[in-house]
Design a protein that fits this description.
The structure is a single chain. The chain has 56 residues and is mainly α. Helix content is 77%, strand content 0%. The chain contains one helix and no strands.
């Protein structure tokens, strides 16, 4: 009976580790996505006036 309970505990720990890994991966992906979208928002808020480049 101890073998069955040890297997159950091990399965629960592996399941929890998988959930934590998935949450970590989702956090990294969402953070990258949020940074990319904030860069786009900042770029779209630039004024549309004359450029600083001199054209000859």
């Amino acid at each position: 009976m101890k073998t069955k309970s040890a297997a159950t505990v091990l399965s629960a720990l592996l399941y929890a580790q998988g959930l934590l890994g998935f949450a970590g991966l989702a956090t990294v992906l969402l953070k990258d996505r949020a940074q990319a979208s904030s860069d786009i928002v900042v770029a779209s808020e630039l004024p549309s006036g004359p450029s600083l480049l001199v054209v000859r």
